[in-house]
Amino acid sequence: LTLSACGRDQTVKVGIENNFRPFTYTENGENKGFEVELWDAIAKKAGMKYELVPMGQGELSQALQSGKVDLVVAGMTVNKARKDNLAFSDPYFQTGLVMLTAQDNTDIGGKDDLKGKTVATKLGSTAYTYAGGLGTPKEVVGYPDIDEAYAALASKRVDCVIFDERNAREYVQGRGQDKVKIVGEPLNKESYAIAAPKKNKHIGPINGAIEQVVKNGTYETLYAKWFGG
Ligand code: ARG
């Protein structure tokens, strides 16, 4: 008997991001995060052997298209533009973008207050597209790493950061404590899903496995571990 016909004996290369806390990040050479653990559960259910390939967000889509990786599990928001080039699994996380300002800022309470302001975020992210679409800010600065945007805000080189809510919250409660705050309500609704090239044989089994890890309670356990229930 050989299993090679269904490809189950092949190792799937999975692109993850090296700095998207608490979803996927690399710390002391170790890959950690909610998605790293969720993916492991999904892969086991789907009977897929895999190898993680950590990289910067900017490299993820390219790595998929060039075949350097077979899948991306990295807080990737599903949207129309990306669907033109990539296939996505069923979504497994609902979230949205939020605005952050300096702790003592009093003149920015929502997106309508960004006229003439400087906004920072991560290059290539949905937040970067969103901020660019506002039209009112004086400048939208895109950094390759979101930590550079947060640092620019903490030292008041920019007026506002727009980024994914859970990542922003982690920064506000951690390194950004007493320096920055989240203002207003989330700006939109986004969902994360696993991405693959259009032509792939993985999304079907992955969707089945996502359904199972939700049903058997694994999803809830991991959610409570990483997001406090
Ligand atoms: N959710 C946002 C996006 O898809 C930001 C994600 C940041 N990291 C990542 N690896 N996609 O653009």
UniProtKB/TrEMBL annotation:
<dbReference type="GO" id="GO:0016020">
    <property type="term" value="C:membrane"/>
</dbReference>
<dbReference type="InterPro" id="IPR001320">
    <property type="entry name" value="Iontro_rcpt_C"/>
</dbReference>
<dbReference type="Pfam" id="PF00497">
    <property type="entry name" value="SBP_bac_3"/>
</dbReference>
<dbReference type="GO" id="GO:0015276">
    <property type="term" value="F:ligand-gated monoatomic ion channel activity"/>
</dbReference>
<keyword id="KW-0732">Signal</keyword>
<dbReference type="GO" id="GO:0030313">
    <property type="term" value="C:cell envelope"/>
</dbReference>
<comment type="similarity">
    <text>Belongs to the bacterial solute-binding protein 3 family.</text>
</comment>
<dbReference type="InterPro" id="IPR001638">
    <property type="entry name" value="Solute-binding_3/MltF_N"/>
</dbReference>
<protein>
    <submittedName>
        <fullName>Glutamine ABC transporter substrate-bindnig protein</fullName>
    </submittedName>
</protein>
<feature type="domain" description="Solute-binding protein family 3/N-terminal">
    <location>
        <begin position="11"/>
        <end position="229"/>
    </location>
</feature>
<dbReference type="InterPro" id="IPR018313">
    <property type="entry name" value="SBP_3_CS"/>
</dbReference>
<feature type="domain" description="Ionotropic glutamate receptor C-terminal">
    <location>
        <begin position="11"/>
        <end position="229"/>
    </location>
</feature>
